[in-house]
Amino acid sequence: MAENVTPRVRVPKEAAAGEVITIKTLISHPMESGQRKDKEGNLIPRSIINRFTCAFNGETVIDVAMEPAISTNPYFEFQAKVPQSGTFTFTWIDDDGSTYEDSKDIAVA
Amino acid sequence: TVMLGARMALAKSAEEMIAAFTGGAQITGEGLTLTAPEIAENGNTVPVEVDAPGAEAIMILATGNPNPDVGVFHFGPLAGAQMASTRIRLAGTQEVVAIARMSDGSFARAAQEVKVTIGGCGG
For residue B17, what is the enclosing H or E element? Predict the structure, then answer.
């Protein structure tokens, strides 16, 4: 199981109604591909985050199926529409069944 | 080497992955932009961006990796644009390919050759 997995998310604190904003996410994770070998020549087992989702007030913004070719510490940048004040929720799902979550509130003036 | 051979046999080709994604449909549409560097010094972390206004989903493939699949972005109703950036691993110099499924059911393709100085899939 991956250790010290820490999600980091950047979302503006405020937006105008209907505005499109940019979101950046980064999560510390080795994304062990399952293709590398250790010093003894044994295959290191695959251990990756295989899915990332972002939703706003429960409605999907983006849903990403991830393979081992996504780099260590997966980074995503994408855009979201903000219809009203609410909460963005971010979920990363690990091969081992763990989920890592973060959330950010945004206010519409 | 027996193990390696078995794994290679199991790995699907990029063509098979594209066929699975499109259901065998012709890829005729335009409107997908794939942005990747022409030269990547480090194949462990290569920035790529896909942008396809009106897309439902965009698949990225690294055609020269042992396993070509990289990921699929699905865009929901609150996507502000059908675009995304990430960082990917490339085992060596190769063509990166993206396929977009548009909301009208058509498909678009874009590709970019990336020269890799240090590969990103070794031990």
Answer: helix B14-22
Structure tokens at A20: 């499109």
Residue burial B21-37, b: 16+ Cβ < 10 Å; e: rest: bbeeeeeebeebbbebe
How far is the CA of A44 from the CAs of A3, A33, B122, in angstroms? Answer: 16, 8, 12
User: Which value does ipTM take for this structure?
Assistant: 0.95
- Flag if A69 and B78 touch (Cβ within 8 Å): no
pTM of the entire predicted model: 0.92
Which residues of chain A neighbour B44 with C-beta distances below 8 Å? 71-72
Q: Please check whether residue B118 is in contact with residue B42, taking contact to mean a CB–CB distance below 8 angstroms.
A: yes
CB within 8 Å: A62 and B123: no
Among residues B31, B71, B25, the alpha carbon closest in space to that of B54 is found at: B31
Give B36-76 pLDDT, tens digit per residue: 999 999 999 999 999 999 999 999 999 999 999 999 999 99
